[in-house]
Amino acid sequence: MSGVDRSEAVHAATAIIDPSVTTSVLSFTVPPPEAVAETLSRFDPRSARRSSLMSSLERDGSASSPLLPERYELGPLLGQGGMGVVHLAKDRDLARPVALKQLKGTPPSADVVERFLREAQVTAQLEHPGIVPVHDVGADEAGHFYYIMRLVRGDQTLRRVTDLLRAGDEETHRNFTLERRVKVIQQIALILHYAHTRGVVHRDVKPENIMLGPYGEVYLLDWGLAKIAGSPAEEPVELGTPLGAVSETRAGRLVGTPLYMAPEQARGAEVSPRTDVYSLTAVLYELLSLHHYLGEPASLQALLDGINERVPAPAEDYYSARNGRVPRALSKACERGLAKDPAARFASTLELENALQRWSEGETPVLCPATLQLWILDRWRRAIVRHPVVVAMTTFVLPTLGVLALLGYLGWTAFSR
User: Fold this and answer.
1) Catalytic pick among 18, 44, 93, 204
2) What's the whole-model pTM score?
3) Of 49, 274, 305, 367, which is the most buried if we count CB atoms within 10 A?
4) Which of 109, 120, 183 is CA-nearest to residue 146?
């Protein structure tokens, strides 16, 4: 590259940089060239080799990765779920913070380890912006299984947002309008549709597993209970579970979270993408109305009976001065998505997303006199946007001419007499 070309290239590159950013936010820990050269002179590549975890498990049943303590520096606890805990960690090699998920308890059973490793592999193979990527998987010298994920920079789950909305928090209501809440569900619907096209059903869609980032990011977390197409079905839900645990993910015979579980999932029947449609609609219903679609069941048995038999009240029945009332079109979408019969639901989460998008664009279906009025007003609004001059003439000029014509006629009639 000539000097002129290089100068032009540098100028073109620097032209797209925000001039207000004067300091790089990146962090580098690479040693100086002299230290690197000295290290390379006595470097043994075999000392940095790392065997495959899966190969180790298949070969001798053991699993070890002595590089974990050196590469990853374990930090504070970030959160925990049904099977695992998540820590903040530092990747020393790449000088970046990451999330490290480990199994709860020691020693874990073979079933728990299998589910944990399957979660890591499923999540790693679902490459979507709304699914947190997995960077690494292994086990340390103590036999603690782990996998490394990108650190999601955000501390708001949809559960927290819903709780704040329900409590009437003014700032949350201002930030999470009805339109924005619908947009969040649309993004989750598209994530699920992608997974469904890959033959994966999530089976644990709930507010706790939806993370909202500070820059508009929406993530669907925790694929540990994902159902892979072709894998055997689990047994039905086990009764006797305390009601306090119905919002928690439970492994074993109880596959999923009862509060958001579809009827066929609670019965242990075959699940499909429409199972996730049901769970996501339950989340939508609660996010819009700020009430669970089955109210507050007194026991797990009552909850399961409600899942299989009870027809929920329309979401539009709930009203509060702060939250308002759920629009009729969205209430009808919730009704369809929560149908007991999978065949009566939306055929896919994409179809649900399309219905929400039509509402967002003002394409209100005519369901009653009130929605007819909304439909007429929306068509009039669109006409104003697309043909302002014509609408202005229709609205003001033509009526004015009509009035003048009428007055002229009346005057001429009076004069003629």
Assistant:
1) 204
2) 0.75
3) 274
4) 120
